[in-house]
Amino acid sequence: MTIAAAVIPDRLRALPRPPLALVFLLAALLVVSRRPGVLLHATFWAEDGWRWYPEAYTMGWSSLFKPWTGYLQTISRLVALAAQPFPLSWAPTLFAGAAILVQAGVATFMLSDRLAELCPRWTVRAAFALLYVLLPNSFEVYANLTNVQWHLALLAFLVCVGRPPAGAVGRGFDLLVLVLSGLSGPCCVFVLPVALWRAFMRGDRADLVRFAILLLCVVVQLWCLFGGGGGRAAPPLGAGPRRLTLILSLQVILPLLIGRHSDPVYTELPWWTNGVMPAAVFALAAALTARTLVVGPAAVRFGCVFAGGIMLAALVRPAIGSSDPAWFAMSHPDVGDRYYVMPMLCWGAVLFAAAADRWVAVRYTARALLLLAAVMLPGDWHLPSGFTFGGRTDFVQRARSFADAPSGTVMSFPVNPVGVEPMVLRKR
């Protein structure tokens, strides 16, 4: 029994794969459809306005080598530098457009033949790509430049586990992705063991080269972190087993099955507040994951190493901007959801693989959960706009006023999410 037979009808499995250019266009349209405001009413998000644009504006190319939160953030700074020749009023749209292109590129790569070795049926990979685009509990990383590093890290992971490219264009693509991802935040640390494992399994020279590139990037990022780049202070954790089951159940396991629109229904139930329901949900997910790690495909084990490393790091040293102990804050909705994107995708991969398990109980449990997700996740299609970002602001009007202002004028500009400090620019 294959994964394709478990989750894809026979008629769909026989369809030819569409051209990747068409897949890319469709993926981009789907990404935009969940939150049209990111393009129609674009506004900077967090460091987009606090760091990337103003530092590119004032420092130029030297901003590229300035760490932030202890790491180089190359992809964000490159886009900010590329936006400088254009009017300021265009910049948020250019930032959002770059983020959308990366997200659509990840979904497209999932359907490429590079991943056929891990999952031969393109229809299964298409279903997983749709899950990636439709992922709930992901508004923080959705179509904004500051958090595009998470999507780029996923692409680097897929490059490392996929089949090595045959031509120079493919090798150049791999180099670009690995360098940009490796020098954009800390996620390269978690891709590195997967790259090493893959190189050890296959012994292919291309895998060794990819591992060497990532290793060099990790060295550079660790040098920035420990060489004075300025990481964030560690918050008090308030750790405990009950909080752990709450975090994983609320932020990873249940969102992938029933979406976030159902939160008010179950989080107010007595069985949730007394911890019984989170513990049961966690136990079910842990059992399916453990079974799949033992008998499932290597791709799931690769994903668990990658996503597990990110989740562990998030639990040990989260950056969530809350005065409460970190694990207490993380056990509530809409807190730190960037940390849960990879674990949710890994949980989805576990369900896809378990749906083809030879044990009947495991197989039909996974299929039932996938059916539940197929029914419930469309309820999370439209992401919030005004509350988080992409709502209407006076950014364009202020940007035009800034363009007409005399040199030396200081002006502030709105930055989302709502309530954070604005961007301040001094006219050159």
Looking at this protein, list some descriptive labels.
mainly alpha, 2 domains, two-stranded antiparallel sheet, 21 helices, disordered N terminus, DUF2029 domain-containing protein, transmembrane, transmembrane helix
Can you put this structure into words, describing what you see?
The protein is mainly α and 428 residues long. The protein has two domains: 9-231 and 393-428, no CATH class; 235-381, no CATH class. The protein is 61% helix and 2% strand. The chain is built from 21 helices and two strands. It has helices at 3-7, 10-13, 20-34, 37-40, 47-59, 74-82, 91-110, 122-133, 148-161, 168-182, 188-202, 205-226, 241-258, 263-266, 270-273, 276-295, 298-316, 326-330, 341-354, 360-376, 395-404, and strands at residues 410-413, 423-426. It has a two-stranded antiparallel ribbon. Helix 13 crosses helix 19 (341-354). Mean pLDDT is 89; it is low at 1-6 and 386-390. Keywords: Membrane, Transmembrane, Transmembrane helix. The chain crosses the membrane at residues 90-111, 118-135, 173-196, 208-228, 271-290, 302-320, 340-360. It comes from Rhizosaccharibacter radicis.
